[in-house]
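@channel anyone free to eyeball this complex?
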Amino acid sequence: MSKPTGNPINDGLLKIAGEKNIETIWDRFELQEPHCGFGTLGLCCKICNLGPCRIDPFGEGPQKGACGADADVISARNLARSAAAGAACHSDHGRDLAMTLLELARGKAKDYSIKDPVKLRNLAVEFGIKIDNKNDLKIAEELGEAILKEFGKQEGELTFVKRAPKKQLDTWRRLNAVPRGMDIEIVQAMSRTHIGCDNEYRHLIELAIKTSLADGWGGSMVATELSDILFGSPRPIRAEANLGVLKEDEVNVLVHGHEPTLSDIIVSASQDKEIIELAKKAGAKGINLSGICCTAAEVLMRHGIPMAGNFLQQEIAIITGAVEAMIVDIQCIMPSLPEIAKSFHTKLISTSPKARFKGMDHIEFNEKDALGIAKKILRIAIENYKNRDASKVNIPKEKMTLIAGFTMENIFYNLGGSFRKSYRPLNDAIISGRIRGVAGVVGCDNPKNQSGLCHADMVKHLIKNDVLVVQTGCSAGACAKAGLLTPESAFRFAGEGLKEICETVGIPPVLHAGSCVDNTRILTACCEMVKEGGLGSSIDELPVAGAAPEWMSEKAIAIGWYFVASGIFVVIGTPLRVLGSKAVADYICNDIEPVVGGKWAFEEDPIKAADLMIAHIDKKREALKLKPLICVTP
Amino acid sequence: MSKIIASAAIRGAKEIYGQAEEFLSKAIKEKGEKCEVKFPDTAFYFPMAYALLAKEVKNLSEAKEVLIFSKGLLHDEPAEKIWLPYLGDTLDSGVAALLCEEIIMALRYLYGQEPQKDCNGFFSDTILRTLGIQLVDGRMPGFAAILGAAPDNQTAVYIVRELQKRSIMTFVGSNVKGRSIIDQLLEEKVEMGWDTYIVPYGRDTLSAIYPLNWAIRGALTFGGHKKGEALKCLKYCLNRVFAFGMVLGELDDIKYATGAGAINMGFPVIADTDIPEIKPSGICTYEHVVKELDHKKIVSRAIEVRGIKLKITEIPIPVPYSPAFEGERVRREQMYAQFGGKYSDAFEYVKMTEPGMIEDGKIEVIGPELDDIKEGGSLPLGIVVQVAGRKMQKDFEPILERQIHSFLNEAMGVFHMGQRDMCWTRISKDAKNKDFKLRHFGVILHARMHDVFSAIADKVQITIYTKQEDVEREVKDAQKAYEERDIRVSGMTDDSVDLFWTCTLCQSFAPNHVCIIKPERIGLCGAYNWLDAKASNELNPSGPNQPVKKGQCLDPVKGEWSGVNEAVIQKSNRTIERFCGYSIIDSPETSCGCFECIVAILPEANGFMVVNREYSGMTPAGMGFSTLAGTIGGGQQTPGFMGIGRLYITSKKFIAAEGGLKRVAWMPKELKDALADKIKKRGEELGEPDLLNKIADETVATSAEELLPYLEKVGHPALKMEGVM
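replying in thread with the prediction:
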């Protein structure tokens, strides 16, 4: 059995895994330790076949690769490539949604509809589309086309960058960092990092910035906006989280991955009478849909579908022995799943044309027959219910209620109702010193850290110090399980000032804003805070900070970069793989701040990391000459 | 906690909705959907529905549309545990409550159930015009709506007296278990009505909609916002209408729901019971809901929570203080001591200062005090008033300084003459015996500067020098400033400024009307002079008062400038092309409806008459004020007729093109009396020292037939002037 993970629920199921000789991420992770020092420090270059080369971090061995690249070039080049990969993921996600919108508009995706016509029209106007007397579908068609053009645009600026405060945009323009299109920036990131091309580390960091901005203000933002149009804009909603949401007497179906195109349709299909009847005929009381990873966040935000687990729990969800089917699409899906499923009855179904897994059934998804495919998948799950072996079922009891569904847009209503909708109460709360500032705590979970506990520890420390926390992705899942996403947690954990605000508005001190592409909601909310006034004229003047305490994916690097480049201080747990180059590390952790407004910090201890964020927020408060906090937590 | 409030307000809104639905369906059943329904004397239909939803409710079926809309604003009460955000829902419920209350009240009018006994009922547009402008321009500091009943009659009286003292308009009504503050005040024989600033609206909470749908009309009338511009109207109330709710005694769901509605307008609620508070700001300027259990403190707490800028009316000096004492002289034999004149060096100087340099309310007397001199003696006196404020400007110094004269004179036993370094002050023995000191000059000036110039003076500090060497030193600084000012302002005449100001405050009901406010021609409402407009522009740069570059002077006699014409064309939406600022015959300025006085031609008299709004009788023009007002208002140019502000009558530029004040043949006596001194002075300047007596009034003539013989008898100058037509 693996070492304790710090999470008793995981530990319980891992014990069972140990008994059955099932290998999980914790075992494999342990076998990888100690991790390659050259890789960790960013000093290993595999870009060309002169190598692989590596730089001796102690200064005794080689200081240059065969081509002459030194530690600075190698680590910066690796970093830019990682950011490009992350940006590519989010952009592809956004592209799929744009395709879906277009298919719908052209009458080829009958199972979808325009769920938020107001947002559709607003977005169309933003893209310069004339509304006139056009119907929703006509507008959707033009919008879909316009957005797809953004991906392939070769010159000019991304449409969404205009959302940023002017001062921020001017900074990017000065740096030549305004992305032209999503694809071109990613392509350039790849070409410029080829052997013998871009060989100056600062220039490579600018590359990482531009590519990442194409994610945050491009691909990811498209994904969020179009998901709201196609599947409805979230509103605050009550739901449950943790493996305890699995049910003994229902067909348990897990949706896992990232894109909502199929999972949202599965939600409708699971409520279909015929399907429910079928489940009952199979001896179950019904169909119990729940989610893993960011797909969970998508269906949680819009439908209140429970979140069974985050990234690290995908394997142990199967080990509960109670999952009839797990449906996966793209990103963060462990290739180990089929091996684990062998010991249980769980059917694994891959659905994306982009991602196949050895040992999984593949039912390829396409928008033209979305509902048909969703029902087909559910029928397989129902059919499989009879194969569940009661002796192998171990559903943990733990589950926690939470409130999710906060967006940049609905904060207006939640703070002022339909008639006085406004960010004023938020800005006022910051200006008057009730709220110290706002922190985004986001990102993955990672066995390098005590699974999930970093998030909760950090967030508790932040809210105790009157910092309002906004979360997405697996980080939100971790805090949901810790009970922090309930309004009651304000009374248990928040500082006096923050508590007063939570009490006035009726919100938790920790706001769930969605999946990892929905980090763009945090960007646009920051823009609204600037617009509301009193907190400076660009995002980098706001008393805000960001963190990804347990980051692991390349997407996290792209997200971190677009936040830093948008003027936000970002603390991550384990360092970016640049510590082998003092120059690169110094630059991105210090010297870059006057250039873009934001910077990086690396701190594994979640409390110390939170203190860094608090210190940064205080520094910004001081610069804005804001009043001291009304209530200072002892 | 505020969840309790949210729950109560949401429940209350549902209850009010239920009542409105029931009442409306009864009315529709009995009278039919097309039955007309309206409030008395308003052009705004159901004002709340008109402002927020752009609905012009004229009949029951249109009222039903509002009801259906308000249903959409109702929400579920927050859950006991793991509740969803409730602030937005609560605010929406509040709006629903107001819309439904408006429906219920209108239906009561339909059934003849309103106004209730001893109550005002719906506040008419007329009241809005007369009192509203004072409310939104700051002359009336704010208004209070009291709901419920005080624990005893004495407390009820105490609270309304405290509000009265501060000139806060107070609306009283609602009840606690059937007991209403209205009856408490009636029993104590407190005089109620618009004149006393205590107005009963109704004995139930639903009728609290009256002050609220009165306030929202302020946004439409004075804010220039259009129907349906909900956010703008509500924010106008937040920023310009300094109202608050005061709930005495226990609260019920209906009161909470109505309070939630008021909060949408930026009006906080102060209660005298132990209720949960909502302190963070954002919808209101400061706190939203607070409690103050001590009735002695509740009024000042309410003022603080709403952020009302109060005028200090009680001046803590040992002698009475009132404008009544301004003309009082202190004769030699009554005098204790004197300063300036030919007896000693004296000066007074208002100086703009950086806020960090002075301390508000600091008063220092450097040198001997009144006690230190013998009876009949004198001392040098230098009064330096330092004023700081975000809106303070050097240009305002002389305006503030000029007021020192009347400020000091209004204290009983103080006589003041002159200005600058040519001033002369006496203090009477009586005042000395009451322990009046030179220091009290500082107290008076501090209070009155804040009182009169609240928009520009944030901090006022006074230093009084009574040592010869100090006065000699300080006066040099002052003299330098006087000199500079003489060059700069020279008493603020139309010719001395480059800029005039537009005022388009009234375009909501006179869409093409624009006032051009000049130093020598005050806005026709009498509320805005050139400096006020300037200060108003400082406060709100994109507001109704915009600078107008005079441009080329096209006619100095008629007062026509190219820049003014350009501004008029633009601001009147291209309906008016020319303004002659000093003529009533050739392209006169337009009139909205708020004018203090009307000037009207009297062809028989070869002159004009001036009638003020307060005069209710007949005039020689054959029409009373209101009939005349109806014909000249609305932003039209009506040669021979014009609305003006009172102060313009004695301006040098008053219809100068037609010969000025000498042309005025008739005025109501009250107006004549009020302006007597100024008319005398102006008459002298025009070579007609007896002009005041030559102007007829209603005691001698209320028709053209009666007027002419009188004018001939007194030899009125207009008769000898060239033809007016």
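from a first look: Chain A has four domains: 8-54, 71-231, 243-392, 407-623.
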